[in-house]
């Protein structure tokens, strides 16, 4: 499939997606990074900024932005896959609070670099509104705010909106209340990742595309065209990680799928709102997410595609007609103004990476020079920037506030062997769908969903 057909976003970057030259043969570097998504490129960016003399090589199997970074919902948020209570249970309350503050700073930092590097990624710092459209969803909205308060975060970080305030931001059908955080920007994700690739090249980093890495080992990244020998090797392959030898059970690739509408007329936007291009969702169990694009479309996505046996990642898995139809139906339910035939022009998807304990992590082992970051679940747009800054400090041996954050050198357990992994991930999905369905039928919160969340350690 041509790269521009992989997502609405990749079809609307302002450059052709012609691959950069592949690795010509064996070479030496100071740092070799595998994967040219946000994680690999942010790491290269901060390393090159801190030490312009470093010889940094990025190896990418396809082209920069081929993976989730060129296909996502474009929420540059301060969200983490692990809740504050779960982080506090594992690492202590202060560490959890420090991590959340670091994420708030991260959204500002991405905005700073986007402006400084002139990356035209339609950055709009409009925050996120998460709607509550049923009794149980209102309860969850209240609980989310109460939890934020327990950790010392005030209304300036997360506010509970009454019905009128919520509707003023996003007039979806049946809105009763909402939570609102200012800590999120809507971005054009592919323009961000492509712009980052150019920014690192301006700083002297070499990117080789169409260069698959077949093995990572201390001191080397091996490809069919040759080996890059370097004392530091960074794995930044997220949902594709299980394909690397020795990493089959490190990450489960879970698919998220999206649709985009045609540009909607001004009159429709007057009815919907999202005037500040707030990203939006609601408090249901199976995650949905949307943004108003700079060209006035709705880009809208959700989970629900099945996990594939053996952690397989295949191009066809991005296209699940059943999930696209469900997304279209859900968008129509949220915004009846779109009419019975929601005008969808694009459908796509991609794999994201889920660690067994649902915890993102970043790490570097000085002994063997191997570094990694990932397991962001659906929250990698912002988090990968924090990962890149942290890896740059770890690799350079800088003891900073970032290197003391609780996710540093956290080792998630490995996933169960198959068929247990397949059974567990897909059963979880079923529980959450059934919980949403039961809640909208009965108006009461689902106990099974709460139990499953606890099982995940949320
Ligand atoms: C549909 C969808 C919607 C999402 N929405 C959001 C959102 O709104 N907000 C948010 O925060 N997060 C979201 N996410 C998650 C987010 O996109 C990811 O967490 C983030 O892009 C991860 O970046 P990465 O660089 O770690 O991985 P990727 O972008 O997947 O990059 C990995 C790169 O490594 C390359 N690679 C893999 N294996 C090899 C190899 N062996 N050799 C060479 N190269 C290799 C791949 O080709 C790829 O380019 C979404 C994800 C999806 C799929």
What layout of secondary structure does this protein have?
Elements: E1 27-28, E2 31-34, H1 38-50, E3 56-59, E4 75-77, H2 84-91, H3 93-116, E5 128-132, H4 135-150, E6 159-161, H5 163-169, E7 177-181, E8 184-186, H6 189-202, E9 206-208, E10 215-217, E11 220-223, E12 226-229, E13 232-235, E14 252-261, H7 266-272, E15 279-282, E16 288-292, E17 298-302, H8 321-334, E18 344-354, E19 361-365, E20 370-374, H9 380-396, H10 420-442, H11 447-456
Parallel strand pairs: 1-12, 2-3, 2-13, 3-9, 5-15, 13-20
Antiparallel strand pairs: 4-8, 5-7, 6-7, 10-11, 11-12, 14-17, 14-18, 16-17, 19-20
Helix pairs in contact: 1-6, 1-9, 2-3, 3-9, 10-11
